[in-house]
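Thread: Modeling a multi-component assembly for a lab meeting

Hi all, long-time lurker, first post. My supervisor asked me to bring a structural picture of a complex we are working on to next week's group meeting, and I have zero experience with this. I have the sequence lines for every component (572 residues in total). Could someone generate the structure of the whole assembly? Inputs are pasted exactly as I received them:
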Amino acid sequence: MPIKVLEKEIVSRIAAGEVVERPASVVKELVENSLDAGSSQISIEVRGGGVGMVRVMDNGVGIPSGEVELAFDRYATSKIGSLEDLESIKSLGFRGEALPSIAAVAQVDIVTCAVGESVGSYLSLKDGIVENKGSQGRSQGTTVTVRNLFRKVPARLKFLKSPATENSHIANVVSQYALAFPEVKFALFIDGRVVLRTPGNGQLIDSVIQVYGLEIAQNMLEIRGEGKEWESRAAASSPPVTGMIGSPAVSRSNRSYLSFFVNRRWITSRLLAWAVEEAYHGLLMPGKHPVAIINISLLPNEVDVNIHPTKTEVKFQNEHAVIGAVQKAIRRTLIELAPAPKIEEVATIYGAPSEPRQVLWTSAGSGGSPTCSPPVAGQTPTVSLPVLRILGQLSSSYIIAEGPDGLYLIDQHAAHERILFEQVINQRSHQGIEVQGLLEPVAFEVNPKQDETLRAHYENLAEFGFSIEPFGDRTYLVRAVPVLLHQKDWVGVVRELLDSLSGGDKGDWIEKIAISIACHSAVRAGQELTDDEMRELIRQLEQVAIPHTCPHGRPTMIRLSSGQLRREFGRS
Ligand code: ADP
Ligand code: MG
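Re: Modeling a multi-component assembly
Sure thing. I ran the full set together rather than chain by chain. Output:
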């Protein structure tokens, strides 16, 4: 279809609005255009966090020379032409808004050569005004270069995060489309480094290897269709769901490994995230989330993509059917393909291996027999605990103690977390984190988003005792870890940090790293403790500055006062 400006009637029906919020939005719109143009190769080059430059190059159908300028008019599109088309959108774009919106806030150069044309054309625009145009040689396809994004919009610039954060958003967008289009060869370069490269051979698993690394890829299960019902779409009552899901052995500590696509459009949906997690119910440890890449194929009239300017949200005509189909597909895949997962197995993978008991209660890293840890220096206990007498342990999770003013139930994990958190913060500020060298350096693979975060925050991790150095393509060597984490799941800690720490200032980082180390090295609920261990824990809790809450802010203890007890038992 040639590019035409949409009629007013159609414009009034589209969810028009701002599509360029940050550099990653530019990348998303340009990549979507390249995909709509049927490209089999898309290369994305980014500099200066995307504000300096974003360049997307493809080998798609190109824009006919007579239409290049028109493509930058608002609501000019070749993808829909009538109201009926709006009801059955098959392309990723359809509003004719991206190019003009980008051109309005940046400097844009486009070089394109359409199928059947022997010579290409170029056009340069600055702040939406054409500055230069002409013909130029180019093989079939389109290259769009966006420079100095938001230079004339300081209010926007101010809201952008650090280049590392913007880069990680960009890497995420490209990763998502690489997962949705395994038949397309993607290459992403950030400041001259190759951040992602997919083979474009049509195999989703090969894209997964590139995006998430081997460890996850080896644990991915292909979603199975439902036999005949699946083959005849017309007869099917539920929409086909395809993709891959992680076996319960590769759960993650946040939801950023859940990808949803509707007819291969990347969307966000809390409802679908919930549905997927429900399907894993009972298979993952609390607080863990699955890895899933899910594409739902719907007929155009079964989904409305025209409800949000950035097209990342959609409305399903029959939400129940979609959710049901997704859950069924996941359950079936887990049951058929995963070796019956047991909660215990999951626990050994993610929980701490059992350790020599005495290590639990020593001050960080001193090893050997229980020792006294010094109170947090420079912080006088502000809300001190009374002296407590230990009565016993409840459900292997809570310590029951008696104080002068009543009965205390202490959550052993939360309390230990608080103790370790303060120790770690204190040791860091005195450069006293005890470090354990690993016998052999451990190679550690990261995804493109984590890569950006790690690059920007080596030093913060080093201050906490992690010695991590780059080792080639998105791989790092870990040579040392904090003693506290030595025999624990330190890989999980680093992953969790890289996933949660894309932005934020240094203060945030310090606190989050300390929390994560404390959380992963603290004694777990469900672990039986000896009397000595309980006594040592309480003694250390008495020393901390803020004994009543864990670093996440949850209570470490519940007190039942003698007065409350009397009232409960009806005594005056
Ligand atoms: P939309 O994608 O909603 O149509 P855009 O502003 O993103 O709107 O693009 C306008 C038009 O420019 C598209 O409809 C398409 O015809 C053309 N176009 C943009 N990018 C490309 C590309 N990479 N290859 C081919 N044509 C493109
Ligand atoms: Mg578009």
